[in-house]
Amino acid sequence: MLQQLSPLLRGASGDLASWLHTPERARIKLCLLTILLGFGVYGLTVGLWRSPLMGVFVSFKMPGLIFLTILCNGLLNGMLGAVLGSGLGFRQSLAAQLLSFSIAAVVLASLTPVTYFLTTNAPSSGDINASTTHTYFLIGHTFLIAFAGILANLHLAKILIATVPNRRVAALTLISWLLGNAFVGAQLSWILRPFYGTPSIEVAFLRDHPFDGTFYEVVWRSLEQIFQGYQLLVLLIAMTILLWLHTPVIRLFTLQKNNQQSAKP
Amino acid sequence: MINPTTQETPEPHPTALKSNASVSSIFEALLKSPADLIETIFQKKNQRALGAKLALLTVVGFSIFGATMGSFSWGTQLWSTPLKSVLGIALSAVICLPSLYIFAALSGTSLKFDQLALGLAGTLALISALLLGFTPVLWVFSQSTESAPFFGFLVILGWLISLGFGAGFLRKMILQSGTSNKGPLRIWVGIFLFVTLQMSTSLRPFIGTSETIFTKEKRFFLEHWCIETFSRNPS
Lengths: 265, 235
Prior knowledge:
The complex is a heterodimer. In chain A, 79% of the residues lie in helices and 0% in strands. Chain A has helices at 2-10, 13-21, 25-48, 52-83, 90-121, 130-163, 167-191, 215-227, 231-245, 247-263. In chain A, α4 packs antiparallel against α5, α4 packs antiparallel against α7 and α6 (130-163) runs antiparallel to α7 (167-191). Chain A is globular. By secondary structure, chain B is mostly helical. Chain B is 71% helix and 0% strand. Chain B has helices at residues 23-32, 34-42, 47-70, 77-106, 113-144, 148-176, 183-202, 221-232. In chain B, α1 (23-32) crosses α2, α2 (34-42) crosses α6 (148-176) and α4 runs antiparallel to α5. Chain A binds chain B through residues 6, 9-12, 106-107, 109-114, 117-118, 121-124, 133, 136, 147, 151, 248, and chain B through 94-96, 98-99, 101-103, 105-106, 108-110, 183-184, 187, 191, 194-195, 198-199, 201-202, 218-220.
């Protein structure tokens, strides 16, 4: 499995384009299996700190979150790709997104020994300082997931550059897909909570009223409480940092532009 | 006319080491001509023997380095710290090897898992060689100071410097394989550093004494450093 995925991890344009031009059933299956296993095993280490049962729950919920996001946005993203003139069919756009999520899954799976090691070495969830450890975990896992996500986006950008004839269209398609996936994915993660397992709250597959509230309302209210009046400024700073973290992706498009200009006689 | 000040000596083409290269010649290659050792890894000949020799260098280097740390407290620490040093570095390598393979692939290289495992073994051997260089300095301080935080700081400083140079071996290997993207490797080095620092806390005490060889209480390394520093120096 890894042998088939390793050329994609390297991100050579030819490999990525060939993968997308012939999205065979076996390749789609491979992506689905990679997401299931990669996010599953990583999810296990995320929940394990709270309790083994929580680990099992999260090992199902994490790949579930990815599949639900693709399911909710698959049609929209396929249509956006077509409307923007990417020339990608519905199946190809789905394959591209599955491929990018597979990259994130492989990266997170490779970090699983590290996260498992940290879980087994951290103070337990029944400890006096459990809330501090919970915060460490929250920040640490958010950082790792964000890192894997940025790598996946970088590969998605490479796929689009390799297959879409126009660079501008490739960039627009990427932005529309990412915004859509982030918007829906964040809300779905709220519905599927808990993932990290707050020490003071009982272990459960889902919260009692999973559809109560939205991710965005809760984030806004939390920012209001913490930063009292400066929440908009903090939000803007967070958005800037997120944009800055995507510099490699932006640079990829700028580089392509410069290459195209220098190639012109 | 060529300006002699800007003229660079062309780097010699790397040549693989002999198949029956001795431990001392591998040690020398690690320090003086890593490109030759990397070429040997690429050629996939006698990989097991090479791996065993690199592992031997690592075990010897970390054992001596561990004994130096143990000499801060003497007693059981003199034999337990070398053992824990070897165990700690071996566990850290096993934990980080899968991510090294993935991050190397992300950088665009087509190196195989076994080649990267050997690359990591080479890195550890180089780190152990550099740590050996720090050993006399650390020994002097281990006998001169009673401050565990200060001695710990020196050990970590030595570790950081050695890791920095050791990571250079992996960087050269990635570059020699034909890619110029070093970003993912830099991140991996950060992860490896993080794991080794946590490992030093999990297998503590390395410096100072304890009633048991291992401590059961679980802590993050930053938390452990803070507790140890401020509990010993209340001011």
